[in-house]
Amino acid sequence: MINRPDYIEAIEPFIDKPLVKILAGVRRCGKSTIFEMLKEEFLRRGISEDHIISKRYTEMDIPENITAKQMYDELVEAMQGKGHCYLLLDEIQEIDGWEKAVNSLLEGADADIYVTGSNSKLMSSEISTYLTGRYVSIPVYTLSFKEYLDFKAGSTLSRRELLEEYIRFGGFPIIALSEYDEQSAYQIVNGIYHTVVSRDIVKRHRINKQDLFDRVVKYIIENMGKTFSANSISTFLKSEHRKVSVESIYNYLRWLEQAFIIYPCERYDLQGKSILKTQEKYYLSDVSLKYALLGYNRKMLDGAMENIVFLELKRRGYDVFIGKNDTKEIDFVATRRDEKIYVQVCVQIPATSDREVGNLMEIRDHYPKYVVTLNEMDTGIENGIKIVHLVDFLLAETW
Known about the structure:
With 399 residues, the chain is an alpha/beta fold. It contains 16 helices and 13 strands.
């Protein structure tokens, strides 16, 4: 097992606090491994192994239609006579009404509770109803480039070569742990995607016209990092003689978001200091999802870089927006409490355009401004704007 210490660090302040710790992210992003790491941390602290109760609700030995009440009773029985216990409940969204059971355990049992799931409904208003102010959400993402290097510690490749591999293969831990060729890697990612779609979306939401749903998803993935609307998708599909309502498209977007296939990125008006409700963009939970569905070609590189930078900002706890400054666009405006950074992303800075640097120069505040590029020859500082290689941006301790 290769450790991902950033997650233990994120959980650590909440250990033994009367809060449910919710770890949520796309399937196969490593949540179960984080639970293994957490168990090791408990053992290191001297907690007896029989006081750590782990349950994975996708295992074959769990009854298929187990109720929340049965789950509750089973856990209470497992804790009987042991005193303070630690509950690690993996993929809990498989149990209808789990939040009521967890709330009862929180109130009536001597337990420190941790749950994982692959559906963002774990962080929705339904949970707030039962766990008002008594839960903390810790999002889990696929591997950062820093983590990818840890997974590849035995590799003879240089950092730059490993970056190329990371851009091509993405950050699913199962891919990083082995040496797959491109076809095999994308085959595995394709399997992850279809599990999410068939089990977490099509089956759960009873989608009858899966071919239409698949076409909408393909359009969304083809247009990652570009602005589009439900109306524009509907109009495009009409041109292919396919009919799907705008309301259905909104539902599809919401369900993809809930399953962590996509993340929304809203537009922020830098002059009016307000979030705009139109023309948001979407990014994938991992760039490899796009290649697995559409194949890889070099024209995708700009979008892949943007996606990687977006996820890195999210991993570090930033709220991320597209910046609108009058008629100019900033790729990302990222805020975290009283911090803010501006980021432009490009494979290389065009010799005939000053868009990347020029758009940032028009912002008159003193927050850090970056252009992130893949071209070594472009790096440096121009008018106070840092032009950095993607490797250096992803591995920087702070920005």
